[in-house]
Amino acid sequence: MTKLHEVLQQVTDTIIERSRSSRSAYLKRVDAAVQKGPHRGQLACGNLAHGFAACSTEEKADLTADVKSNIAIVSSYNDMLSAHQPFKHAPDLIKDAITEAGGVAQFAGGVPAMCDGVTQGQPGMELSLFSRDVIAMSTAVSLSHNMFDGALYLGVCDKIVPGLLIGALTFGHLPAVFVPAGPMTTGLSNKEKVRIRQLYAEGKIGRNELLEAESKSYHGPGTCTFYGTANSNQMMVEIMGLHLPGSSFINPYTPLRDELTKAAAKQILKFTAQGEDFRPIGHAIDEKAIVNAIVGLLATGGSTNHTIHLIAIARAAGIKINWDDFDALSKVIPLMTRIYPNGQADINHFQAAGGMGVLIDKLLQAGLLHADIITVGDDRGLQYYNREPVLRDGSLVWQDSPAEPLDRDVLRGSDEPFDSTGGLHLLKGNLGRGVIKVSAVQPEHRVVEAPAIVFDDQNDIVAAFKAGKLEKDFVAVLRYQGPKANGMPELHKLTPPLGVLQDRGFKVALVTDGRMSGASGKVPAAIHLTPECAAGGPLAKVQTGDMIRLDANAGTLEVVLDQQVLDARIALVSSEGSHRFGMGRELFGGFRQQASSSELGACTLFSEFDLEDSSQ
Question: Counting C-beta atoms within 10 Å of the first and last residue's C-beta, which end of the chain has fewer, N or C?
Answer without folding.
Answer: N
